[in-house]
Amino acid sequence: EYAFWKKCRTKTISKNGKNYTIFQYISPVNTPRPEAYRSDFFAAENVPEIKRRQIWNDINSAAESGWDFSSRWLSNSKTMDTIETSNIVPVDLNALMCWNMEILAHLHGEIGDTNRRAEINIERAKFVDTFEAVFFDDREGSWFDFNLNTGERVDDTYPSIAVPLFTECYSSLNSPMLVEVLGTLQRKGLLQFPGGIPASLIRSSKQQWDYPNGFAPINHMVIEGLRKSNHPIMQQKAFELANRWINRNYEVYQTDHKLWQRYDVAEDHVRSANDDDNEEGYGWTNGALLDLMVTYSKRISVSDKTITSDVSEINDNEPIDILIKKLENIFGSWIS
């Protein structure tokens, strides 16, 4: 898989007189997606014919990212005919590839291939320098996506800027940078919502990966990135965010008796992101929720409002570790 990304999804860019090789989502497909042919066709309906294939290529590239769709890929933050995924170098993708290098080096060490482990460790060390040079903004105190068209970092703030905390794609000697990133997340307003972290602060796009929708993967990565730091303020913020996310999931579950693909995190009153295409029983929601419940089982409490017969023995405001034990009796020991 890593060989595929290096061969098919890299690009060399120049910045401040130096060349850097980075990763991006860039699909080779420039036609409407078979599974969404009608919507893709009409997305480019009002675009000159010569530009339509680029629109469809960018739509396919955005779908490849998993953020399908988001103002993050739209030049005007609103309409699909301004999509420019191929111009955006995502900070989170590159952070994940940095982590991939670390994992591969570890696995080669486990099988005794110390030479290959050393090679990948050197490659990762160089990439950490690339990562900081391309994505980190000293003035803002955080990493940001990079726009190939403008040659500048993208000003709009998305929680994906915290993914490098999760993958630990930074120099171990640069710990003050981590506190700066937390300050940026707070200053930009991403951490203020009662139900978790929204996919963006953009309210005008009407795309699913935008305000007020929160998704389990990005909430989980932000929380874990803060938790894994050695800084008590960051660790406390991780706990607070986990508490909000777990309780939003659980409160909606009490009403709907379901776990959802995404949640409205912005309102004090409890609801899911109630669109027709919000899917139930979603794997990433289940997995992130269970992991956070186990991680914070001694600290977080949940408050029941409506109890179903399946969990009728669960009491108000009980610790998560007790809840996990009772859920084990219902669903089996695989939960823990």
From TrEMBL:
InterPro entries: 6-hairpin_glycosidase_sf, 6hp_glycosidase-like_sf, Glyco_hydro_37. The keyword Ribonucleoprotein does not apply. It comes from the Eukaryota. Keywords: Glycosidase, Hydrolase. GO terms for biological process: trehalose catabolic process. Its EC number is 3.2.1.28. It catalyses: alpha,alpha-trehalose + H2O = alpha-D-glucose + beta-D-glucose. Pfam families: Trehalase (PF01204). GO terms for molecular function: alpha,alpha-trehalase activity. PANTHER family: TREHALASE. Belongs to the glycosyl hydrolase 37 family. This is Trehalase. The lineage of its organism: Eukaryota, Metazoa, Ecdysozoa, Nematoda, Chromadorea.
